[in-house]
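sry for the spam today, last one i promise. struct tokens for design, 238 residues
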């Protein structure tokens, strides 16, 4: 992982936010307008926080494409530390980068809202608490994406093909929404719609999402560990 990698992502998120949402903010009409905050900026159906198009497709693709900057790839380190420690090291790097990714992504929304909205409006709406809870779920989502991608990379013994396969998996999961199947963990983040449009937060449903995501992560970790120890061609280059 490199500082440059994080800076480039922040720049990318800034550009995406401007392209998607700046039309609601450019002349400060939204300064005290709760409807703009609720229905435009923090909606999961339109704009920067669109869970299908932006988070589930664009940002997911960006994250997967950058994973080669996260993974340690050295047969020397495998010999030095052993397979188990080497595997766990890569998982930890994915976990940390997922956290950074979620902070960068949602932090972009926070920064723009601090600039263009009345701070009292943000505080009274619970905006900052909502964004914190939102960050946790996005963190877990990208951890699932990263761990799945690592398993695909191990299984295919490829540093290139796994990117396309992994992206296809999560694009299909996100797209299943259009046949009435919200099976992608990215849709757990839809709680922010109820938070702002209805003033309602279902704490039990949120907790259930956390539990499901954590169990998925544990299952992926165990599956990846088993595949990793069985493979004889992990370090072939394709």
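last one done:
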């Amino acid at each position: 992982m490199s500082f440059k990698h994080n800076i480039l992502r922040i720049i990318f998120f800034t550009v995406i936010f401007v392209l998607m949402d700046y039309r609601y903010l450019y002349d400060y009409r939204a300064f005290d307008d709760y409807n703009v905050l609720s229905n435009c900026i923090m909606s999961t159906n339109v704009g920067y926080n669109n869970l299908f198009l932006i988070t589930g497709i664009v940002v997911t693709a960006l994250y997967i494409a950058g994973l080669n900057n996260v993974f340690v790839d050295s047969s020397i380190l495998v010999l030095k530390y052993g397979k188990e420690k080497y595997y766990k090291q890569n998982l930890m790097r994915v976990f940390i980068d997922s956290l950074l990714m979620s902070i960068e992504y949602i932090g972009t929304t926070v920064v723009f809202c601090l600039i263009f909205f009345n701070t009292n409006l943000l505080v009274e709406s619970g905006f900052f608490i909502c964004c914190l809870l939102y960050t946790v779920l996005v963190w877990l989502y990208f951890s699932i994406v990263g761990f799945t991608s690592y398993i695909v990379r191990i299984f295919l013994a490829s540093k290139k093909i796994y990117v396309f396969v992994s992206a296809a998996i999560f694009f299909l999961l996100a797209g299943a929404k259009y046949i009435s199947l919200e099976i992608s963990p990215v849709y757990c983040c839809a709680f922010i719609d109820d938070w702002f449009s209805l003033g309602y937060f279902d704490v039990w449903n949120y907790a259930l999402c956390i539990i499901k995501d954590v169990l998925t992560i544990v299952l992926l970790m165990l599956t990846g560990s088993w595949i990793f120890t069985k493979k004889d061609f992990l370090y072939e280059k394709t």
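Confidence is low (pLDDT under 50) at residues 233-238. ok im logging off now
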